Amino acid sequence: MTSRNEFIVASTSQDLSEALGCSEDVVEDLRDKGIVASSGELWDVGPARDYLRDAAWAGGFWD
């Protein structure tokens, strides 16, 4: 499965967590895993949205 590119501007972890609909702790986990990547304040969140969708479907973060 290929991941999609979806870019947003987020200046803080809180902005990014609000855009993704998850906690800042989850955002940090996604950063550590390399799932969400930035170029300054521009973030490619497509892969993170796919990951979070799949995790929610599987119950990964919300068990």
TrEMBL record:
Protein name: Uncharacterized protein
Organism annotation: Arthrobacter sunyaminii
Lineage: Bacteria, Bacillati, Actinomycetota, Actinomycetes, Micrococcales
